[in-house]
Amino acid sequence: MKLPALLLALAHLHGVLGLWPLPRSLQTGSSALKLASNFDIHVNIAHAPSDLGSAIARTKSFLKNDKLGRLVVGRGTLDSNVVQRAGSLRTLELSLAPGSPVRSITDEARLPIGTRSEEYALHIPADGFTATLTANSTLGLLRGLTTFEQLWYEASGQVYTMETPVSISDSPAYPFRGFMLDTSRNFFPVSDIQRTLDAMSWVKMSQFHWHVTDSQSFPLEVPGFTELASKGAYASSMVYSPQDVQDIVAYAGARGIDVMIEIDTPGHTAIISAAHPEHIACAEASPWTTFANEPPPGQLRLASPATTNFTADLLASVARMFPSSLMSTGGDELNTECYVQDPETQADLKASGRTLEQALDVFTRTTHAAIRAEGKTPAVWEEMVLEHNVTLGNDTVVMVWISSANAAAVAAKNFRIVHGPSDFFYLDCGAGEWVGDDVANSWCDPFKTWQKSYTFDPQANISASQAHLVLGGEQLLWTEQSGPENLDSIVWPRAASSTEVFWSGPGGNSTTALPRLHDLAFRMRQRGVKAIPLQPLWCALREGQCNINS
Amino acid sequence: MKLPALLLALAHLHGVLGLWPLPRSLQTGSSALKLASNFDIHVNIAHAPSDLGSAIARTKSFLKNDKLGRLVVGRGTLDSNVVQRAGSLRTLELSLAPGSPVRSITDEARLPIGTRSEEYALHIPADGFTATLTANSTLGLLRGLTTFEQLWYEASGQVYTMETPVSISDSPAYPFRGFMLDTSRNFFPVSDIQRTLDAMSWVKMSQFHWHVTDSQSFPLEVPGFTELASKGAYASSMVYSPQDVQDIVAYAGARGIDVMIEIDTPGHTAIISAAHPEHIACAEASPWTTFANEPPPGQLRLASPATTNFTADLLASVARMFPSSLMSTGGDELNTECYVQDPETQADLKASGRTLEQALDVFTRTTHAAIRAEGKTPAVWEEMVLEHNVTLGNDTVVMVWISSANAAAVAAKNFRIVHGPSDFFYLDCGAGEWVGDDVANSWCDPFKTWQKSYTFDPQANISASQAHLVLGGEQLLWTEQSGPENLDSIVWPRAASSTEVFWSGPGGNSTTALPRLHDLAFRMRQRGVKAIPLQPLWCALREGQCNINS
């Protein structure tokens, strides 16, 4: 049987192994192995948490239902002869390293960023003897299960791999591997967010950054502040209730994802004026272009003690809805002209004898103290560090968005960094301008291809002594022109690009990565996430043949 | 009751009437009118065709299920008082002008381009007396029903309009208002095509240009040539059977849409080599960049009499599958180097004593004769006229794609024109490059916004004496990076832009058109087509407030 051996060799040369992100250490062989019809996953852990059981059930379901034919001509049907004679894997055994605390996936995923254990080791022998997955935490086991799912293909009714033995020792390069969704400019039902969390978990993302409110709508029902959503949501059907939030954070936690909520302040808050006009400056100001980067204008009266207390109480109440230790208070795009022209703010400043910057400092210290009292570490957008001089705890996380070049300045101030630069990671760019009478292209043209995101270097221009400050990064979807209609198609598989940078480390080659990304996109589709094709199917089935330098 | 009157006035000033495309003649009043609970549509036509009955049933279903709240703050709930007291419309009466032939919508839609009757007149009185829709054809009645559907909103359980009396006299500026879909680079199930036809009909498109095959795959089962699909489709599940074709053309016809099939020749045919390697030059040639604009290379051996006859027979068989009087034989991007390096072609040229251009002329005359024998008028891409010197019947339709500037040169040669210029109408541009190792942006950057398409002038640089040559135009989706996953979101509502240009005429103002386009996108979503948001909902509910010059 010469042919199968040749095919095997080709398959291996072509590197069709569909892992994403790539493990940090990976050895594969060239032996076929199939899953036994009675394949099962055993857990050698006393009192294993229930969310680990659920994760195992999902893995078994994916192994059964992915039904992914290898992305080669013939979709792997030529493997069948070899697979028929191959060994059968009956068991994957999961265990924790001795002495590891038996915590739920959910609890581990919500530990402070940087202290979660995600490493794991996976070994699949070529002979079909028991495969083993070990980790120091159930979260690590979840990451390993996610890897295990990506090893298998189906042809002629057999679930198999052509690359055993497989030895993987894996851990993330950076702990913060995120995706940000804006649910204020356009609304997304809970089911859309849960589907997104599913896809995030399949690529080992760790952090959902939920930009829940903005100037356009206030879709979050906050205990004690229910008027904000009842008057500020787009519709009563477009509100996240406390139960919805519980469902989302539970869904995320079980999938190894922590939810960092953001209530953007003091800018990006115009819609609060619907319920509390007394707290918002320049809500009716015109033209909006003078008072905000986007309509509607309107910002919290940061110099007002009443507004400051209101904001602190609101943030504290939101903080109590979310189990994460991180919470973003925003802080981007503060418009000073809004305050210059607001008589109340001017009166407040005069009464206190403070400058606007001094008032902003008081406002920020007060609101941060409020969420710290609830156990949160604040995250802020870069302007709070680079354009303003507010007092921030030195554990504050700073999110860089204006330009990747700005990370160095944030690092120089010794703050921890999350990379979300518009020039690499903004998923909305390049699809035209949403302003009603401006026929120009988008402000952050061009479209950020996955290849562009893939070239991101988290340590660019950051000194070795500041390297530890980089927590990771995220791709972001601002939703001026997105809704449930294009959520999947604008995000996937593109947003998988950064998670490989932040898990596997930078420097990957997008040309050789492409076949794995195809593989991921196909699995996503089969699991219900509408990841788009990156190439004609002809190319996806013929690695390298659609390269210019082929 | 001062408030409702004020609201009414505002509503009218703001022009919320959600018609798309805009009728050529439109008068509206400011009286409210609701649909009676027993509203019905009567047909005053003896032996009315069944597809008119189906169209009426769809209209009644949309009136019931669109449930579109007006795109204003409050979604029209404040209209309720006025609507309660308004008259009720019980009947819309449809009739044909005396002497009009009673043809089905389907038959009228398949008449030769330029001879179909699409004009109609619609009158809705303010008092609730019978509304009337008259036309010279059932196709005209369909267009009028489509307009009628767009007049109504729902609030508090009432279906109503605030703008009666309505008087519309309407007819298209151009007969060819099209959309092109490439089903070769990636495959689309029949249901996706039918959903696209639905959306096309809602904006009065008349022509589906089906680029069914290309070099990547051959998904069409052609009687007598079934080996092309069985060996050249991506999978047996990715084939359009003759029954599928019948279903698609019937579905289109009933919706007033003619289907122009394209079998692109002699280039863009590499996949034919899977079944007939003898007919394809340079199928294995390398590097592909020398022999084709996209992989895989491979073109019909146009100098071979056998290949020419094969192609003529194939095209004739395809022609018999489609009732349209138009059929495209393609003709774009012919690569001459492929033939220079093909020994068989060189031998054929030598044997016949022809140059390549002369052989192309013979090939084209032969294949066009074959489809003319089946009653088809050929359509070709612009290169057949501008880059080659082939003999074409003077009724040939030429599709301009490389640049909008090229239309003038085609007109100068006295050919009929369909505008499909990449610089205005290519829906795939601006989303990155699909070539595997080229991280550049797309060749036709930037993204073509709906506003850009909307500025298209069909008569630009065309002399008055050639003006009659312009049949219309189409927006096009080449599917290197599209599949069912993003079909709706990449096409809608953008592709509605050109249909307003070609129905209502050019010169529209995109700023004032935007609210109508929002309205259309909302209706599309409620009818199951995932049209994307063009703005935050905050803006969509507040006409003009997200303009820079507001």
Structural features, described:
The structure is a homodimer of 550-residue chains. By secondary structure, chain A is of the alpha/beta class. Chain A folds into two domains: 2-170, Chitobiase, domain 2 (2-Layer Sandwich); 176-422 and 474-498, Alpha-Beta Barrel (TIM Barrel), CATH 3.20.20.80. The first copy, chain A, is built from 21 helices and 16 strands. The first copy, chain A, has helices at 2-14, 50-65, 80-85, 105-109, 138-149, 190-202, 226-232, 242-254, 288-291, 305-321, 336-340, 343-352, 356-372, 383-386, 407-412, 422-425, 450-454, 487-491, 496-504, 510-526, 537-540, and strands at residues 25-43, 87-96, 120-124, 131-135, 153-155, 158-170, 176-182, 207-211, 258-262, 280-281, 299-300, 326-330, 377-381, 397-400, 416-419, 470-477. In chain A, the strands form three sheets. Chain A has an eight-stranded parallel barrel, surrounded by four helices. A five-stranded mixed barrel of chain A has the order 1-2-4-3-6. A two-stranded antiparallel ribbon of chain A has the order 10-11. In chain A, helix 2 runs parallel beside helix 5 (138-149), helix 6 packs parallel to helix 8 (242-254) and helix 10 (305-321) runs parallel beside helix 13 (356-372). The first copy, chain A, starts with a helix and ends in a 10-residue tail after the last helix. Residues 1-16 of chain A have low confidence and may be disordered. The interface between A and B is large, with 71 and 71 residues. Chains A, B: It catalyses: Hydrolysis of terminal non-reducing N-acetyl-D-hexosamine residues in N-acetyl-beta-D-hexosaminides. Chains A, B: It is an enzyme of class 3 (hydrolase).
